[in-house]
Amino acid sequence: MNRTLARLTALPLATAALSTAALLGLSGAANAATPTQNSTTQNSTTQNSTTQNSTTQSSTTQSSTTAHARAGAVHASLTQGSTGMTIVFDNNSDQPLTLVSATNPYGHWQDRAPQTIPAHTTGVSISDYSNNIEGSEIDVTYALPDGSQVTFQGLVPLAGSDSISGSTTSPAYVLHGQSDAGFHPTYHFQLANA
User: Fold this and answer.
1) pLDDT (tens digit per residue) in 96-122
2) How far apart, in whole angstroms, are the C-alpha atoms of residue 157 and residue 29?
3) For 40-69, how does the pLDDT look when each residue is reduced to its tens digit (9 = 90+)?
4) Cβ distance 151 to 139 under 8 Å?
5) Residues 6+ apart with CB under 8 A from 155
6) Distance between CA 39 and CA 37 in Å, rounded?
7) Sign of the alpha-carbon torsion through 87, 88, 90, 96
8) Residues 6+ apart with CB under 8 A from 179
9) Within its chain, how far is the Cα of 174 from the centroid?
């Protein structure tokens, strides 16, 4: 009975090792988990044995390289997040902008909102990534020298529709937004004189 229990206990561990190998797509990993089969001929020459070992070593090195490449790809996908966004902001107005607030409640900043955006500056990138179940959200508010504010937001939920919103508190300026779709969209906002 103890042998049966030991075999049943060991089975999930072997299955987990093979499942991990299958998940990573490692063709050689399953072979590495089982003993290497020897030649069926007992009278093999030293040369044949050396060739077989060389082939096995090459196969193991290739599997190891493949495992490292796949692990790197998994790491890259985690740092990109399940969702994220890039906001490209153009200040086409005649006034500089000063950062009031920038929040990213569910994710991690890749490119933070700059403290100031000079007048007539285009292509300012603000971006994040998130692995949070809520998705990704960026909220930014800038102040103009006259005290008015420009606020814009991007949302990338895991479930539902992506959206953007933006406004100014002064009729002297207009804010235009262009949306995109997907789990890693690029949104474009343009501030201009009215």
Assistant:
1) 999 999 999 999 999 999 999 999 999
2) 37
3) 333 333 344 444 444 444 443 444 444 434
4) yes
5) 135, 136, 137, 162, 163, 164
6) 7
7) positive
8) 162, 163, 164, 185, 187
9) 34
What one-character-per-residue DSSP string does 104-135 give? Answer: -SSSEEEEPPPSEE-TTEEEEEEEEEE-STT-
Alpha carbon distance 184, 81 (integer Å): 9
pLDDT at 79: 55
191 token code pair: 């501030």
Give tens-digit pLDDT for 148-163: 999 999 999 999 999 9
Measured CA to CA in angstroms, residue 43 lies from 35, 36, 47, 49, 51 at distances of: 20, 18, 12, 10, 15
Question: 7-40 b/e with 16+ CB inside 10 Å = b?
Answer: eeeeeeeeeeeeeebeebebebbebbeeeeeeee
Backbone angles phi, psi at 155, to 5 degrees: -130, 135
Contacting residues for 61 by C-beta, under 8 A, at least 6 apart: none
Rounded Cα gap, residues 60 and 174, in angstroms = 62
Paired tokens of 64 = 């190891």
In terms of Cα–Cα distance, which of 154, 69, 64, 161 is closest to 113?
Answer: 154
